[in-house]
Amino acid sequence: MITDNYQIELRHFTYFLAVAEELHFRRAAEKLFISQPGLSTQIKQMETLLGVELFFRNKKKVKLTPAGEFLKKEAEFILNHLRQTKRQAVMIGQGQLGEVRIGFLGSAMQNVVPDLLLKLQKNYPTIHTSLEELSNRAQVNALLKDQLDIGFVRLGRVPSSLESRLIFEDTFSLVLPENHELDTANFKGMHQVSDRNFILFSKEYSPLYFDTVMSICEDSGFAPKVTHKSVHAQTIFRLVESGLGIAIVPTSLQHGFQMRVKFITLKKIKQRAVLSAVWKKDNRNPVLQHCLKLLLNDSLH
User: Beta partners for 162?
Assistant: First the structure.
């Protein structure tokens, strides 16, 4: 019997998240290194204390209730925030300002992220940085769960709880095998490659980028035949190098890869590859403000 002496503790959130992620009590118990009956008791205790059911469960499956869905998102944020708060406290106690966690697309590593890291090192040498290359969607999810402080994405819109600022605008370039007959001198327009196979970044990686590239071709009067997709620039360049198709990428991606491909900048088109910085509006990490000040060149108020 549950009495008023019981209260929800951090372990309840940990146990709840394990079941919410696995949707299977035995697997969750194994993950937590506790017994299945013990885990069931803890979840039941949590439900009693909250006065709501968190899971629909029968002999065949376990499913989150609407209340459980809500709690899962909040519990993920709470536990991530607590872990980061502890880490920040340790760093500050060691004489550092703290840590900023940065997510980025591969193309942001060509100029934007390295420039930011150099500015941080020069102006705030005691700020620690952690970097993680993630897709647009993964960065947004990590920001919402307090797993990242700032991300660099190619998205047309973000959830209302996030702030977004344009950071870098790039041209697009056509990527061709090194021995292709077209070059900067004889290239007149995209109509010259309308019959070729195209290799693009997948739509899941960046819907905005994919749609923009498709519009470049459509403006030239054709729908590209897309034969391969990838989330990695190096893979795309390798496929082009092998003669399996051509590609369109942000121009800045031509740096840092040693492959037998060539680039033709598409200077006369209206489309641009836009990179934005995103962060959570209510992020309380004071280090983030130093980062934003440098990144936005004192334009944030």
Answer: 280
C-alpha 120: how far from chain center: 21
Those residues with Cβ within 8 angstroms of residue 199's Cβ, 6 or more apart along the chain or in another chain:
226, 227, 228, 229, 230, 236, 239, 240, 244, 245, 246, 247
CATH of 172-271, one of 3.60.60.10, 3.40.50.10780, 3.40.50.970, 3.40.190.10: 3.40.190.10
Q: Tens-of-pLDDT digits for all 301 residues of the chain?
A: 344 456 888 889 999 999 999 999 999 999 999 999 999 999 999 999 999 999 998 878 899 999 999 999 889 888 888 888 888 888 888 777 889 999 998 888 888 999 999 999 999 999 999 999 998 889 999 999 889 999 999 888 899 999 999 999 999 999 999 999 999 999 999 999 999 999 998 887 778 888 999 999 999 999 999 999 988 888 999 999 999 999 999 998 887 778 899 999 998 899 998 999 999 999 988 899 999 999 987 444 3
- 96-168+275-295: CATH topology: D-Maltodextrin-Binding Protein; domain 2 (3.40.190)
